[in-house]
Amino acid sequence: MTKKILIPMIFGITLMVSQEVIPSDKISNKSKINVISNLRNNKNNYNIRKVSWYGPKFHGRKMANGKKFNMHNFTAAHKTLPLNKTRVKFINPKNNKSVVVRITDRGPYYGDRAYDLSYAAAKQLGIIEKGVALLQVVVLSN
After folding, report:
1. Pairing between strand 132-141 and 115-118?
2. Most buried among 28, 103, 131, 139, using CB within 10 Å?
3. How far is CA 125 from the centre of its chain?
4. Cβ–Cβ under 8 Å, residues 133 and 92
5. Contact of 66 with 94, CB cutoff 8 Å
6. DSSP character for 51?
7. Which domains does the chain have, with CATH numbers?
8. Is residue 103 within 8 Å of 63, Cβ to Cβ?
9. What is the chain's alpha carbon radius of gyration, rounded to the nearest angstrom?
10. What's the rounded Cα separation, in Å, for the pair 131 and 110?
11. Running DSSP on this structure, what letter comes out for residue 87?
12. Which residue, among 37, 25, 114, 118, has the nearest Cα to 70 in the 3D structure?
């Protein structure tokens, strides 16, 4: 049977497709894992963003919200999201670690990066050594 259906996917994406409907018990676990893996590796996904981190060099300096930056707090910088009231969840698809931060500063101002995480948030996600990573981003409130 062929019909149009809406498929809710992992990263908040909903797809409308025309295809033959196959009962879920007829789909192998290997196929399900491949779909998840392909979504995680999709760099064009609207909520996968390039994220970096900042820490010691800026520790104690004044942020855009007027307060001192503490690299041990779970905060982040973004160019346009409202300061102080916006909370954002970051998920590292490579290790499934996640963190929720508050936007307290402006930036990043280097390359095509969308967010700068505090040292504590980056450490929680496991991206300290790499410095820059592609992460899933979910804006929770603003």
Report:
1. unpaired
2. 103
3. 10
4. yes
5. no
6. E
7. 2-40 (no CATH), 48-141 (2.40.40.10)
8. no
9. 18
10. 13
11. E
12. 118
